[in-house]
Amino acid sequence: MTSPAYREYDHIVIGGGAFGSAACYWLSARPGSRVLGLEQYELGHRRGSSGDSSRYIRPYHRDRRYSQLLPAAYDAWRSVQSTWQTAPILFTIGGLEIGDGSAAGQQMITDLAAALERDSIPFESPSPAQVHARWPQFRMYGDEQCIYQGDAGFVDPRHAIRAHAEIARDRGATILAETPVTKIEHDSGRWVITTPAGEFRSPRIILTAGAWTQRLLDQLGYPLAITVTEEQVTYFGARTLSDFALDRMPTFTFRSDEPMLYGGPDYAGFGVKITQEIMKHTVAPETRSHQLDLGVVQTCKAFLSQRLPGVDGPMISGRTCLYAGPVDRDLIIDHVPGAPGALMAIGGGVGFKYSSLVGRLLTNLAHDETPQVDISGFGLARESLRTPGHGFGSICVWLSSAAF
Ligand SMILES: Cc1cc2nc3c(=O)[nH]c(=O)nc-3n(C[C@H](O)[C@H](O)[C@H](O)COP(=O)(O)OP(=O)(O)OC[C@H]3O[C@@H](n4cnc5c(N)ncnc54)[C@H](O)[C@@H]3O)c2cc1C
């Protein structure tokens, strides 16, 4: 455990995953700010929401609250990349959306096309035959509707978290790994944070604790139920894996009347990524099973044999991962009511693409600045969190907001 530089800080960030590392990065960019980041495990661990080699990003969204964040989200990644040349962070390899012949599949593509037009984002609507001609890896059946957008792609979470943390440290931030916060108290206008490395004090704390957020909010006396579900990603091999390399195919989603499937090319030898949102295994971070849902693995295999038949190898790897968010599944970026100087952010199943921007927005809030984008839709006072079911101790289910 590294020795902390100080006991008193201007900002203490609790949680060093996607959002917490980004908060340390942007807070430490302010000259003279003493920033402490506390992470209970090693940085870049895989027990939370961010442990994977890719998280998808696209510059469009049906919901205007999210689409207006996306230009700033891309800018934030480009800004981090410009100061960290160790490894690539953002890969804009293009994204293909496929809706099958079902009414739901067609409607989803129609809605996405409308969102792209609304926001004046260039895109293509290739026919199934054109998709197959350009990316012969995809078998098409002729009744699909498709969209291709060239700025979509993915962020490498391993590189993103490392970049945020390394630069923050270079700027003078202290980031302590393997340092769990065990108690939070408010005393004489200061937050007192207890850890095995001792106590730390600050007028401002930022909760970026993902699936562990609810227990921290409990200590602040703020009743918000956070639903945690165990999701999974799987990677498959192919006899000719080079056909599925980064420069040969885009990321993709497949929309039908079943839950969405999505994936992307082989990156760094992990294999072709394919997964389906599950959102039914509600867990606690400590008691989750870490077991793959074999039904979903079968669904993914069936999809590959029907739609990407060249991905004919065995499953190379698969792991579970946590979605954590409020009942409406939307982002939260806000002050914690009744807890002076406390901020929080949580990302659910959609958050990684925004994470560097979220760190920047938290920095704005910590400095009482007006953020560059409208975050009023991500506040704790929103209507969807005031309905019965969001309260402390209640049983939550995910609402289907199709926020992906
Ligand atoms: C399978 C899957 C696929 C996804 N795909 C996408 C995608 O394609 N695109 C996208 O944009 N998003 C995607 N997401 C969502 C995205 O990954 C999350 O929104 C994002 O990673 C959340 O980051 P976080 O920092 O909130 O959580 P985490 O990365 O889990 O970080 C929280 C951190 O807080 C630490 N912590 C908790 N309590 C304490 C404590 N008491 N003391 C110290 N540290 C503590 C934890 O150890 C953890 O490191 C996906 C998520 C999953 C699970």
Q: What does this protein structure show overall?
A:
By secondary structure, this protein is an alpha/beta fold. It has 2 domains: 1-91 and 152-226 and 326-404, FAD/NAD(P)-binding domain (3-Layer(bba) Sandwich), CATH 3.50.50.60; 95-149 and 230-321, D-Amino Acid Oxidase, Chain A, domain 2 (2-Layer Sandwich), CATH 3.30.9.10. The protein has 9 helices and 19 strands. It has helices at residues 18-28, 64-67, 70-83, 103-118, 128-134, 157-170, 213-220, 294-307, 355-366, and strands at 11-14, 35-38, 55-57, 90-91, 95-99, 145-149, 153-155, 174-176, 183-187, 190-195, 198-202, 205-207, 227-236, 251-255, 261-264, 272-276, 315-325, 332-335, 342-346. Strands 6-5-14-15-16-13-17 form a 7-stranded mixed β-sheet, sandwiched between helices. The protein has a 6-stranded mixed β-sheet with strand order 8-2-1-12-19-18, with helices on both faces. A 3-stranded antiparallel β-sheet has the order 3-7-4. A hairpin with a 7-residue loop joins strand 15 and strand 16 (272-276). Helix 3 (70-83) crosses helix 6 (157-170). Residues 388-404 have low confidence and may be disordered. It binds flavin-adenine dinucleotide (FAD). Residues 14-20, 38-41, 48-50, 55-56, 180-181, 208-212, 231, 233, 321-323, 346-353 line the site of flavin-adenine dinucleotide.
Notable features of this structure?
D-Amino Acid Oxidase, Chain A, domain 2; 7-stranded mixed β-sheet; globular; FAD/NAD(P)-binding domain; 9 helices; alpha/beta; disordered C terminus; binds flavin-adenine dinucleotide; 404 residues; 25% helix; 2 domains; 6-stranded mixed β-sheet
